[in-house]
Hints:
Radius of gyration: 17 Å
Helix content: 25-40%
Amino acid sequence: MISSRHKAQKAQTREVLTIHEQEKLSSMTKSAITITNYLGGLYHFTVDEFEAELTSISLIESKHSKSSIIPSKPDIKDGLLKMILYVNLNEVSIKYGTIISAKPILKLTSPYVQDSLDSNSLESLKEWCQQHKMKHQSTFRFLQELFEEAIINTFLVKIEKAG
């Protein structure tokens, strides 16, 4: 167990220092996050970006597509796994400081996005898909279900132009 934790921490450190070509981040705020469960288990992750405010922190998992308007379903599902973890955090603190609230965000980027959209704008999704000339109804349904999932589970999905 000690060896496994040590390897996980080393992997976390490497990941924080690595910016992958396919990651289109709007800031250089990649950071380590360690989740402790009620049994004392430690789980080492990284967040692609974070935005700290006085009483909350946005934990941002970014997925990018350079060839289509949205990333692949497997990439998005990978991001959803982290959203499941982040929405279930009971206490969040920065370096053992004051406890703040976490706001999980799944950010989807592509150079083909013209206008940004987020899951708080579910009613604008159909128009957004038409504007971006999405021809497949299945893509619209997938995004609609993704937005509904975000609303139900209290995280945010943002679709933005890669920058």
